[in-house]
Amino acid sequence: xxxxxxxxxxxxxxxxxxxxxxxxxxxxxxxxxxxxxxxxxxxxxxxxxxxxxxxxxxxxxxxxxxxxxxxxxxxxxxxxxxxx
Length: 84
What we know:
With 84 residues, the protein is an all-alpha fold. The protein has a domain at 1-16 and 33-59. Helices cover 62% and strands 0% of the residues. The radius of gyration is 24 Å and the shape is elongated. The N and C termini lie far apart (54 Å). The chain crosses the membrane at residues 6-25, 37-59. This is DUF2909 domain-containing protein. Keywords: Membrane, Transmembrane, Transmembrane helix.
């Protein structure tokens, strides 16, 4: 459930970035329209929520890392050298 929330927040960030670009192009510097500024505020809020969710996941152990190099050496299968 935590990973799904992270993915949803990431998609919302991309959508907010797209809407900010759209408003920037449509308003063309109009001082009375503040839609680009509001989009930036929404994107900042989403980014903070995403960071908080990731910190929570790592702190509680629900998110971790499983890298191939963290497992240690892989044992070699087959006959040992010199056993013949």
